[in-house]
């Protein structure tokens, strides 16, 4: 490589870093909601995601990694309060099974057509806001489940985002495949539904003009960060349920393991330059994953208890040692 080419390489990377720093200094102070700077590279804002994202300057964030409320109603106050009190509501509070205590799980099969339409409208509004806030070529990783992913993912494409595939998290749980309730002995050889052994994460990208190489130089986005020089990022990740030690640090009902989140977060910024946003930050696990891989990240959530939980959970989660494979 000649000196002119090396100087050009330094120039565009330096410009990307300067833009990143400028955006970071602005967006971590946006909005009137209470905020906590978890570290120099991570900020948590107590705010509604759709309202806050619409306050962002256009083209100010570079990637989104989020695990939203899949069906919305499970985090309505009346159902969420029942979950916290242990009385259930839409949340299924299952008994122990073979000596293992099972975590609560929302019963998404009970959603009405009106609730499904509301879910679609919610994610469509979120997607429009994210599209405006993302730089061209910015990627979104959004979690769902096999029952609702078609609605959620369609809402994102209708907002004008490109569907770029899905990451399939292979995870074996104790949930699903149960016999008919109250007639388990009579119908011992019947499963009510297929036992879920996977979790879909939709991958979306904001459209851009020109080539990927041009977009990388201008915005630092457009592709995904490789695992190594010889191994690309892959769309199937085997990852066991969240470990007990992580749940003790961050007792959130839908906590995802650091081993998995760090892989998604790392892949979301192809050059390792930019700002990652989590609209539904919960206990701060995505922010902790970004901290662990050396990225800047900002998160929002409207639940005050989770906001307080993240203050305590962020540092131990970000410093947790996890296996790469």
Automatic annotation (TrEMBL):
Q: Does the keyword Nucleotidyltransferase apply?
A: no
Q: Which InterPro entries match?
A: DNA_methylase_N4/N6, DNA_methylase_N6_adenine_CS, RM_Methyltransferase, SAM-dependent_MTases_sf
Residue intervals of the DNA methylase N-4/N-6 domain: 61-312
Q: Source organism's superkingdom?
A: Bacteria
Q: Which UniProt keywords apply?
A: Methyltransferase, Restriction system, Transferase
Which Enzyme Commission number(s) are on file for it?
A: 2.1.1.-
Q: Which GO terms describe its molecular function?
A: DNA binding; N-methyltransferase activity; site-specific DNA-methyltransferase (adenine-specific) activity
Question: Which Pfam families does this one have?
Answer: N6_N4_Mtase
GO BP, one example?
methylation
Keyword check for Nucleotide-binding:
no
Q: Which PANTHER family match?
A: RNA METHYLASE-RELATED, TRNA (GUANINE(10)-N2)-METHYLTRANSFERASE HOMOLOG
Q: Which family does it belong to?
A: Belongs to the N(4)/N(6)-methyltransferase family.
Name of this protein: Methyltransferase
Organism source for this protein? Tumebacillus flagellatus
Q: Species lineage, top-down?
A: Bacteria, Bacillati, Bacillota, Bacilli, Bacillales
């Amino acid at each position: 490589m000649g000196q002119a080419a090396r100087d050009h390489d330094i120039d565009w990377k330096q410009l990307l870093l300067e833009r990143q720093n400028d955006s970071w200094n602005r967006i971590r102070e946006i909005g009137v909601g209470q905020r906590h700077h978890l570290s120099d590279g991570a900020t948590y804002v107590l705010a509604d995601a759709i309202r806050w994202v619409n306050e962002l300057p256009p083209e100010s964030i570079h990637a989104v990694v989020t695990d939203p409320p899949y069906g919305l109603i499970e985090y309505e106050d009346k159902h969420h309060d029942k979950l916290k009190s242990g009385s259930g509501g839409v949340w299924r509070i299952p008994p122990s099974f073979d000596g293992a205590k099972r975590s609560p799980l929302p019963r998404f099969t009970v959603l009405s057509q009106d609730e499904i339409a509301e879910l679609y409208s919610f994610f469509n509004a979120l997607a429009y806001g994210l599209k405006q806030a993302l730089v061209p070529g910015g990627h979104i990783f959004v979690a769902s489940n096999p029952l609702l992913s078609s609605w959620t993912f369609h809402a994102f494409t209708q907002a004008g985002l490109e569907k770029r595939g899905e990451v399939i998290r292979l995870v074996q749980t104790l949930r699903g495949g149960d016999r008919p309730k109250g007639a388990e002995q009579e119908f011992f050889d019947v499963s009510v539904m297929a036992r879920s052994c996977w979790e879909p994460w939709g991958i979306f990208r904001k459209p851009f003009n020109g080539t990927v190489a041009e977009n990388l130089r201008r915005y630092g986005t457009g592709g995904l960060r490789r695992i190594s020089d010889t191994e690309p990022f892959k769309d199937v990740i085997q990852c066991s349920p969240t470990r007990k030690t992580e749940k003790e640090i961050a007792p959130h009902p839908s906590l995802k393991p650091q081993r998995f989140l760090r892989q998604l977060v790392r892949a979301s910024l192809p050059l390792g330059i930019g700002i990652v946003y989590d609209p539904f930050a919960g206990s701060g696990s995505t922010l902790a994953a970004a901290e662990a891989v050396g990225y800047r990240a900002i998160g929002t959530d409207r639940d005050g208890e989770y906001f307080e939980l993240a203050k305590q959970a962020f540092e131990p989660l970000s410093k947790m040692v996890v296996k790469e494979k």
